Amino acid sequence: MRRKFIGGNWKMNKTPDQAKEFVISFVEKIKTIEGNSVDIALFPPFLALNVVKEYSGESRLIVGAQNMHYKDSGAFTGEISPVMLNSVGVNWVILGHSERRHIFRESNELINLKVKAALEHNFHVILCVGETEEERLTSKHYDVIKEQLESDLADIDAKGINNIVVAYEPVWAIGTGKTATPEDAEEMHRYIRRLFEGMYNSDIADKVRIIYGGSVKPANAKSLLVKEDIDGALVGGASLNPQSFFEIVNSVID
Ligand code: PGA
């Protein structure tokens, strides 16, 4: 059984004060969840990491970063390193988000360097992949996902894969209110699992968690999360409000 994973990606939203207010409320809500069947994570902006760590206290909340550089230190104006994140107790990171790929032009080669650095520093990585609308309409979506995964995970061995969660996030579904149908999402998740069988082995393919992202809301979460190969969700907009994020978390709990 793969444990479910629900992550909230706040993107460039919330000041430290707003983050504190959210966490105080959210931690109270998740106290009611029993058992260990779901990982719950928040990915706030860098400036709010400390406050989210502090106010999540001993709760089950995982706190991660939205991006990082692959070097430990150096002349990289505006960047944050794995060492810096570790120093505030953070060892989860989102890499390859489509906004990083498309707005900030991050290449598969750069993402691969970041994945390697993250694993060397014992991070857990949410590796995001996804096709654009045009790529889907021209039936290139499977090739695009294959290319992204093979390049982003180049030289990553089977042991490293234990620390990777794949997030399938079709670009056309992010922040648009358009969600992939549960059937389309499931089909891609199955395809990714089969790819892992070829790239690694069937045991790894079976164990790797593949989560869906793109306009996940309390109203549609359950229909996606009941699918066999959808192991959770990466949530943007709907994670900014403690109640709606909690409702999404709750939709994986029977
Ligand atoms: P969204 O974002 O839920 O606002 O579509 C998802 C994401 O970018 O991870």
TrEMBL record:
Substrate binds at N9, W10, K11, G175, S215, G236, G237. Signal peptide: none annotated. Keywords: Cytoplasm, Gluconeogenesis, Glycolysis, Isomerase. The active site is at H97, E169. One of its GO terms (molecular function) is triose-phosphate isomerase activity. It is found in: Cytoplasm. One of its GO terms (cellular component) is cytosol. Pathway: Carbohydrate degradation; glycolysis; D-glyceraldehyde 3-phosphate from glycerone phosphate: step 1/1; Carbohydrate biosynthesis; gluconeogenesis. PROSITE patterns: TIM_1, TIM_2. SUPFAM superfamilies: Triosephosphate isomerase (TIM). The keyword Calcium does not apply. Its EC number is 5.3.1.1. It catalyses: D-glyceraldehyde 3-phosphate = dihydroxyacetone phosphate. One of its GO terms (biological process) is glycerol catabolic process. Homodimer. Involved in the gluconeogenesis. Catalyzes stereospecifically the conversion of dihydroxyacetone phosphate (DHAP) to D-glyceraldehyde-3-phosphate (G3P). HAMAP family: TIM_B (MF_00147_B). Belongs to the triosephosphate isomerase family. This is Triosephosphate isomerase. The gene is tpiA.
